[in-house]
UniProtKB/TrEMBL annotation:
The keyword GTP-binding does not apply. Keywords: DNA-binding, RNA-binding, Stress response. Residues 16-78 form the RNA-binding S4 domain. The keyword Acyltransferase does not apply. Pfam families: S4. Transmembrane segments: none annotated. Gene3D superfamilies: RNA-binding S4 domain. Belongs to the HSP15 family. One of its GO terms (molecular function) is single-stranded RNA binding. SUPFAM superfamilies: Alpha-L RNA-binding motif. SMART domains: S4. GO terms for biological process: cellular response to heat. This is Heat shock protein 15.
Amino acid sequence: MSKQAETPVASPAASVRLDLWLWAARFFKTRSLARQAVDTGKVEVGGQHAKASRAVRVGDGLRIVRGEEVFEVTVLALSDDRGPASVAQTLYAETEASRLAREQLRATRIAERNGYRAPEGKPDKRARRLIKALGDIDAL
């Protein structure tokens, strides 16, 4: 049976490196991005900043900041292999408050974009002069 045909199972190890678990749980695309996020303080374990080599155990609470999104999750299983997204989602459980806050933030961003209308074409000669004048206050 090939390795891809098998369903990846969480490893029976007692702990896994934090950066490796974040990569396997698909919070970050590469392990180096996960390490960089941990090093810059965007990942907290139990309310404290951690090193990338910190051991993650089942039951640990993580707070992960990725862009504008904030995830508060509890570790349910350990894995050091990056598998399909459906398997990665079984490695953690996101708190209800975290999920609702992310959905509300997403709705706010969508509402802010509703009033924006992209220009239909290139600016004409008069509009180009006005745009140029914005950069040079003395031009008017």
